[in-house]
Specification:
The protein has 10 helices and no strands. It is mainly α. Helix 3 packs across helix 8 and helix 4 crosses helix 8. The protein starts with a helix and ends in a 20-residue tail after the last helix. It binds fe (ii) ion (FE2) (2 copies). One fe (ii) ion (FE2) binds next to helix 3.
C-alpha cells in the first residue's frame, strides 16, 4: 500500500508539509475508488504538484493551496473515464477537513474548494492560484497522449513549460512519462 512516507515529499515539492498532511494524504489514498497507480493516481498527483509548485513560484500564487489541489482534485473519481462529477465530489469531500487539518486559512481552503469543484468545468476567475492549479493539471495531459494546447492555459509560466520538453516530462519518483533516468528539473 502506498503511504505518505512514499509520496509526501513529491506532493509538497519545496514546501514543508503541514503537520497534519501525513494523516490527510493517507486518508485520501485509503479512500480512493480508482487504482492509486492509474492515470489519475499518485504519479499524476505528484506531477500536478510539481507543475503547481513551479507555476506558483513564478506567478506569486499560493503553493500550499496548489499542493493540496494536486492531492484532492481527482481523489473522488469513481473511474478513469470522463466522470464529470468528480470535481464537485472532491470539493464536497474537502468539507470533511478543517482548514487547520490542511494548514490553510479559511479563505485558502475556499480557494482550494473552488479550484477542485470547477476543474472539470472551468469557471471565470481572476485568481492566480486557481489558474496555477488548473494549468498544473492540464500540463500532465501528455501522460495520456494528449498534447497541451497553450491557448487553453491561463499562465505564462505554464506556457513556458510547454515550450520546454524537458520540463514537460519531469521525472518524479521515476514514474513520469519519458522519465526513467532523466535528470529531474527542480520545481523552484
Ligand atoms: Fe480531474
Ligand atoms: Fe487531474
Amino acid at each position: 500500500m502506498t503511504g505518505f512516507r512514499d509520496v509526501g515529499q513529491a506532493l509538497f515539492p519545496g514546501i514543508p508539509p503541514p503537520p497534519g498532511a501525513a494523516a490527510v494524504v493517507s486518508d485520501l489514498i485509503r479512500n480512493m475508488a480508482v487504482d492509486p497507480e492509474s492515470i489519475h493516481g499518485i504519479s499524476h498527483w505528484e506531477r500536478v504538484a510539481w507543475f503547481g509548485a513551479y507555476i506558483c513560484r513564478r506567478e506569486q500564487a499560493n503553493g500550499l493551496v496548489a499542493a493540496w489541489f494536486a492531492c484532492f482534485h481527482d481523489c473522488r473519481r469513481l473511474n478513469d473515464g470522463s466522470d464529470r462529477g468528480h470535481g464537485p465530489r472532491a470539493a464536497d469531500f474537502l468539507k470533511l477537513f478543517s482548514p487547520g487539518d490542511l494548514g490553510l486559512t479559511r479563505a485558502e481552503k475556499e480557494t482550494l474548494a473552488f479550484a477542485c469543484r470547477h476543474h472539470t468545468h472551468e469557471r471565470v476567475t481572476e485568481d492566480p492560484t486557481v489558474w496555477a492549479c488548473w494549468d498544473a493539471d492540464r500540463l500532465d495531459l501528455p501522460r495520456i497522449g494528449v498534447a497541451v494546447d497553450p491557448s487553453r492555459l491561463f499562465t505564462e509560466s505554464a506556457r513556458r513549460v510547454v515550450r520546454s520538453p524537458e520540463m514537460l516530462s519531469p521525472d518524479i519518483a521515476g514514474s513520469a512519462p519519458g522519465g526513467g533516468g532523466k535528470r529531474k528539473p527542480q520545481p523552484v
